[in-house]
Amino acid sequence: EVELLESGGGSAHAGGSLRVTCAASTHVITWYCMGWFRRSEGKEREMVAVFDSAGMTSVSDSVKGRFTISKDYGKNIMYLQMDSLKNEDTAMYYCAAGEYCYLPIGEEKMKTWGKGILVTVSS
User: Fold this and answer.
1) What region, left, alpha or beta, does residue 54 occupy, with left being phi > 0 and alpha being psi -120 to 50 degrees?
2) What is the full per-residue pLDDT of the chain (123 aa) written as tens digits?
3) Which residues, in sequence order, are CB contacts of 30 under 8 Å at separation 6+?
4) In sequence order, which residues have a C-beta less than 8 Å from that of residue 65 and are 6 or more positions away?
5) SS3 content of the chain, % helix, strand, coil (to 5)
6) Contact 98, 32 (CB under 8 A)
């Protein structure tokens, strides 16, 4: 059973930074495609940034240059570093994983989802 444990997030002012983390097993961190998705109030869930099973990344145009996705294989953690935050980044952020999938990756390829963690950005 794949388990994803999210932490971090919280509140920040516009222009500030936050980080969310997702802990998983060694096998998932190493071989699965994994990523971050978010859902803002009144909007559909969207891809933020993902790793495919080959380690390639894809980042949404809406956060490119501001958000960085990374992994620490020693700690079995995936990170999403969020800098230069904007009000529109306010959302529930979900860690997700799928078994052996490659770019392009949409949520249909993700089979396991975390519970979500709230990020709130205020002016």
Assistant:
1) alpha
2) 889 999 999 999 999 999 999 999 999 999 999 999 999 999 999 999 999 999 999 999 999 999 999 999 999 999 999 999 999 999 999 999 999 899 999 999 999 999 999 999 999
3) 73
4) 84
5) 10, 45, 45
6) yes
| CA max distance for the chain | 41
Distance CA 91, CA 69 (A): 17
Token reading at 111:
């089979």
Q: What is the pLDDT of residue 100?
A: 87
Amino acid at 111: K
